[in-house]
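Cross-posting from the chemistry board since nobody answered there.

I work mostly on the small-molecule side, so proteins are not my area. We synthesized zinc ion and want a rough idea of how it might sit in this target. Sequence and SMILES are below. Is it possible to get a predicted 3D structure of the two together?
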Amino acid sequence: MVSKYSGRCLCGEISYSIDVEPLFTGNCHCKDCQRSSGSAFIPAMLFSEESVSVRGEAKYFESSADNGNIHRRGFCPNCGSQLFAKFNTMPGVLGVKAGTLDNPSGYVPKLDFYVASAAPWDHMSPQLPKKIGAAQS
Ligand SMILES: [Zn+2]
Ligand SMILES: [Zn+2]
């Protein structure tokens, strides 16, 4: 059986599969996402944690945003690829970074958020709605 969504880190030590549709999809342009990914933004999908089947064990790095919210970023301890996210404000929800998908066209962003922090060389789709700050506010 083929899952709706599947993906893995660069070395393959961590992989996942998901059989439901995401609760949310959007591109986060905040500075923490830029710094932790080394790129312009993180393409984020949110799923209920129980619907994501993970093989391998991600290591989580915790940071707190300006508003005090805790964001835990899950990455492969071997190759460093960032795959997952957990938020203290959203218990039971797992973020999945769409760059790790086996099929990149499975990701359809609905929103650009934290666009106030976007880098000047970060070119966004004019078709997507923009939020200055957090996606949910
Ligand atoms: Zn890896
Ligand atoms: Zn972010």
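Reply from a structural biologist on the board:
Welcome over. Reading the output above for you: The beta strands are 5-8, 15-18, 24-28, 42-48, 52-55, 59-64, 70-75, 82-87, 93-97, 112-113. The mean pLDDT is 95. Happy to explain the token format if needed.
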